[in-house]
Amino acid sequence: MAENETRIAQLIVSARKYLRRYRLQLILAMRATAGALFAFALAQILHLHLPLWAVLTSLIVTQMSLGRSLKVANDYLVGTFGGVVYGGALAILIPHESELALLGVLALAIAPLAFIASFRANFNVLPITAIIVLLVPGMQHVSPMASAIDRILEVTIGGAVGFAVSFLFPSRAHSITIQAAADMLDLMADGLSRLLEHHTRELDMTERRRIQDGIAAALAQLTITGAEAEHERHARLTSGPDTGPLLRTLLRLRHDIVMLGRAVGCDLPDQVAALLTPALKKIEIAGSNFLRASGNALRELKPPPSLGEVDATFRDYIAQFSTVRREGLTREMKSEDAERLFALGFALEQLREHFGEVQRVVREWERH
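Below the sequence we write its predicted structure tokens.
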């Protein structure tokens, strides 16, 4: 009995962890399902000829965040209306009873709209909508005007339902941005620790690429969610702070990690290593702890961690490096190693400055 209770307790804990980890994805699945069902029911009530397009539009508009839903809804509806107007005009003005005439009208519908869509990826729906408006009347035996009106109604209903569901049960892009930024800070903390842990041993290319690619991918995702958060803010769907300073600060930190990756691995004389290694170890511990604590503060919208310990470790390194230079210990080093050592010092100086910016932007979000 006790063993079974233990297993049940473990299953409950695992389920909670799973739900917490994939909370946003589960919310999206529920919103998409609810939106699709409601769009289909509404299309049936209004006796629309193709409820399929209302359902598909609802699914397209229902995105991970409210900001992304707003952008997709705007792009999709504008593209649809443009395709309906152009395709409807061709269907009404140019007779196409024969197969040859229909092929010619299709070419006129697809070519210019596909050309426009090649410049604006969010207008891919333009030629698709024009084709539907041209072909559906022949399949359902309705007039081109009726087909165009139905298409507008179907897409309008689907878009409105998708956006309404996203608005009533939202995943705010600002919240997703905070989570993505915090995750990126954790990745950079791990990267900083890995690079400085064995600073006299150059990492192999695979390990270095793994660190840098992970941070780059996190930054790319953060850039997308940040843009969505700005859509929400400009539409007054949220009162969160501007994401620009946060994104710029994390971009600078990413550059610092890249510079560190190129600078570490120089062969230090014993005297130089004895002076600098303990100081670099302190920077590794204090810096990675600061980044992780900053990430946690962002997630919980709490005040940022203190920079006292971080500043003390950097001052210690500067003092030890000054001793190295004053005693001329770098003269015994190879020119390549000396250059990398000075590059390491410059990268750490930049990192120290950007830690202060991290503290500032975390405080901005905490005040909100």
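The chain has two domains: 25-168, 173-367.
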